[in-house]
Amino acid sequence: MLKTRLDRIQRDIEELAKFTCVEGIGCTRFTYTKEFAGARDYIVAEMKAAGLDVREDAVGIIIGRMEGKNPNAPVIMTGSHFDTVKTGGRFDGPAGVTAALETARTLHDEGFVPEVPIEFVALPEEEGARFGSGLFGSRAICGQLKPGEIENNRDWDGISVAEAMREYGLDPAKAAEAQRKPGEIGKFIELHIEQGPLLEKNKIDIGIVDAIVGLRVLNVHVHGRSDHAGNTPMHMRADTMLAAAKAITAGTEKAIALGEGTVMTCGRLETVPGAFNIVAKETFFQIDCRSKTLANVDKVLEVVRASLDKSCEEYAGLSYDMEEMVFASELPMQPEIKDVLRQSADEAGITYTDMLSGAGHDAMIMGSICGAAMVFVPSKDGRSHVPEEWTDYEDLQKGVEVVYRTVKQLASEK
Question: 314 lies in which domain range?
């Protein structure tokens, strides 16, 4: 018999989905917006109702704490992010926040007093959908924010992270205060939707993540010259779009050849002046490259650079620059936590399988300072980052149940 409550889980997902700036098309909730503030207020209220001591830290991370008998012991932490991509779904991120809320409520209902502190968290800007540099909350916790990032990273309207923080009610000058002390966090557990088809296809209740892929996200800016599309010979052009296309193709082919879960994606590309009959004098694109090993990621990016270098040699007037926006090494999940996850699933009669995460998550960053683990729940048709993203509430509850049982077990250990 499951101890968590389906009705509360469903309510969380549906209430959080209401905080969107694009009505009728999935869920769009960018960090530090009024919709984000509305979701924050809902989460804070639910945490307080579960008896937690609630605070918002220097970068907007919501933290609900259940004190332990040993308040100085390393914290057991669980949660996920509550921002979304543009016109995304209602489960990516909020499913893990819901797991944290329902775990807190269930423990509160039982009158559970942990041996060590438990913190339930909701994190900002994991997706990077507003400011282009994701995993922001977890990187702040781990002291991995880049110098100048808060002042220089801007959204589509030119608003910097710092400006948005001020408008939201935070002081960007205090952002470093979000970093936690060494040893303060002992374990981090995150529930997330799979964002792939395997669990649904194989009719397995949950996935226990074995490792998270390594990844790099790069901004690439190619500089050239505008010319007439009809009267400029091909060999005399400084065509930035052509150089970008060759580099993207070369990197994609290298990723395919390497295998081992290596993938390269270019989902954003912009040209200037952006007219069909003018050679593009500037092209901007972003590369997202991931693999089971970071060495494979670097091999792909070496091919991209080599292709751009070759284009610059062949066509006078071409140049380019690259900037790394996100970096994370591949990360094995902690065996000790995985063992408790399996035990919890067995006790609840929930089926599971070990699996690789091809997506980056906050757990990937948190794993740099503490033991980390992840639970996946099925995604209908493997869809995610789209309005059609869906996980049946009964499937989500099974994942939440495993998180609840695991957190309780770990927090019971002296």
Answer: 214-328
